[in-house]
């Protein structure tokens, strides 16, 4: 018995019960320590000729416990409602991660009437584009006491404007690059003996050297992006100018 899978044990018990005749189901169930229902199911399968399982399966398709989100269709929307205002990450990336632990999320969902384990919460998050991320340096000095409320307010405004088919954009500065004939990693195809000549050290440009500053404008609703590159200081004026050029150029759909 210990060497057989679930289906094989059921058919073996059913065979013994049929050999015993009347009362065999109860006698075999007591001797094997299983329920009479299990033995009776095996008998029905034998009588119906269902003795061959599908390759690689011990149960029929659709058998076994249903997934939590199938039993409770409101579970996934409730989970996403919990993590959406608190998710972090680059808006250009399809990957998202949350600042709440799986156990905290599971406890909150259970309190809302959606009993679920932390492991199931992790699977649901992974299936919906979230990923497990290491800690990152995202704190800039002392935080305002109302910072969380501010971002929740912004999140609600974003959803409201998106519902009205209005453009919602994210604007941020990308990585700055020094201008000049500076060395960069990597190689490129060139005529033999004719490499691109660059400065021996990038610090020759000094702290006063000009830097290219890419300013990205990302339309959350249309899932499109646009980058404005300048050499001026990274200021709010530059951000506004980038938005103005985006509206005058590709602009919202």
Strand and helix map with partners:
Elements: H1 6-20, H2 24-32, H3 36-47, H4 68-71, H5 75-83, E1 87-88, E2 97-98, H6 102-111, H7 118-127, H8 147-163, E3 169-173, E4 177-178, E5 211-219, E6 224-230, H9 236-248
Antiparallel strand pairs: 1-2, 3-5, 4-5, 5-6
Helix pairs in contact: 1-2, 1-3, 2-3, 6-7
Verbal overview:
This protein is α+β, with helices and mostly antiparallel strands and 253 residues long. The chain has three domains: 1-62; 68-127, no CATH class; 167-184 and 199-248, no CATH class. It is 39% helix and 11% strand. The protein is built from nine helices and six strands, in the order αααααββαααββββα. The protein has helices spanning 6-20, 24-32, 36-47, 68-71, 75-83, 102-111, 118-127, 147-163, 236-248, and strands at residues 87-88, 97-98, 169-173, 177-178, 211-219, 224-230. Strands 3, 4, 5 and 6 form a four-stranded antiparallel beta sheet that branches. α6 (102-111) packs across α7 (118-127). The chain is elongated, with a radius of gyration of 31 Å. The mean pLDDT is 79.
Q: Which structural class best describes the helix and strand composition?
A: alpha+beta
Q: Helical segment tally?
A: 9
Model regions low in confidence, pLDDT < 50 over at least 5 residues: none
Distance between the termini: 66 Å
Count of domains = 3
Task: Evaluate the radius of gyration.
Answer: 31 Å
What helical percentage do the residues reach?
25-40%
> Major beta sheet, specifics?
4 strands, antiparallel
Which range does the strand content fall in? Answer: 5-15%
Shape: elongated
Mean pLDDT: 79
Number of strands: 6
Order of helices and strands: HHHHHEEHHHEEEEH
